[in-house]
Amino acid sequence: MTLPTSAEGVTRSHRARSVGIGHSHAKAILLGEHAVVYGAPALALPIPQLTVTASAGWSTRTSDDQDDLSYTMTGSPSRAMVTQASDGLRRLTAEFMARTGVSGRPHIDVILDGAIPHGRGLGSSAASSRAIAFALADLFGRELSEDAAFDLVQTAENMAHGRASGVDARTVGAARPLLFQAGRTEELKLGCDGLFIVADSGELGSTREAVEMLRNGFARRPGAQEAFVRRATELTEAARRDLAEGRPEELGARLTDFHALLRAAGLSTDGIEALVDAAHGAGSLGAKITGGGLGGCVIALARPEQAREVTRRLHEAGAVQTWVVPLKGFGNHAS
């Protein structure tokens, strides 16, 4: 069935049956957060088991309604979060209509159902935007390329976070871990086994606040930005080689060293430090903040036989949720 390009003239029963569906997933940054905004490389990990699904359908509202878009999030998001997300969604939707030539001002109801916790550095806003973009494409019968999807997600991300690097927008649609730098991506070679454990501290982080805090700190200290970016680049490039060449102990040490860099920049919290210490105490190969910091999540690298103990200790230290992402799941790993 060919879907209409406008709600005008479409019967209410037809609209009720016409629903577009889009999917996406979470992500975690292995190394490179913050520095990636200044052109440094970043390594990013898809989290395929943490998903979000968007459904978009014709609204039963009349054409006299001024608001063209109804947006509903499942769960219990804060009013401020819904407002911020709605603003980005409206911009994304308007951009989608312009890019794909949808005529008129169709009234659309969007429902977002996701398992990605908000404000934890797991790419919830980017994943939501991507799912919605593909739901709209499905509803209107449009093809959406990866580059077009990226541009649409960035439209919403720049509203939510200010200057978004693009790493989230790429990774929430990726099937494999990525190297991201200056807008370009490539799939990482995986020569390591082992698994990553992501632990939610339960503390809301703020990427925008963290980015502004770091930028202000750089402005007060001449040479600080260059030193931060240089060290971040060294660690990220070394970690990429360790990951490709099968050196898990060295890779874990890069994670820990990058955490020290972020902690020195003021981006950690007592809760985050407790989780990092717990991961180390349980024998993990390395652990760090993942994402913007000032709350959010910790990511730890562990051997498979360590996973149960690391996870247990993380929960004892205050983690409210944990997720395990095995490198074997992405293929191209050591035998």
UniProtKB/TrEMBL annotation:
Keywords annotated in UniProt: ATP-binding, Cytoplasm, Kinase, Lipid biosynthesis, Lipid metabolism, Magnesium, Nucleotide-binding, Transferase
Cell compartments where the protein resides: Cytoplasm
Domain annotation GHMP kinase C-terminal: ranges: 240-318
EC number annotated for this UniProt entry: 2.7.1.36
Pathway(s) per entry: Isoprenoid biosynthesis; isopentenyl diphosphate biosynthesis via mevalonate pathway; isopentenyl diphosphate from (R)-mevalonate: step 1/3
Domain annotation GHMP kinase N-terminal: ranges: 96-168
Entry-linked SUPFAM superfamilies: GHMP Kinase, C-terminal domain, Ribosomal protein S5 domain 2-like
Gene Ontology molecular function: mevalonate kinase activity
Record-linked NCBIfam families: mevalon_kin
Family: Belongs to the GHMP kinase family. Mevalonate kinase subfamily.
Protein name (database record): mevalonate kinase
Organism annotation: Streptomyces galbus
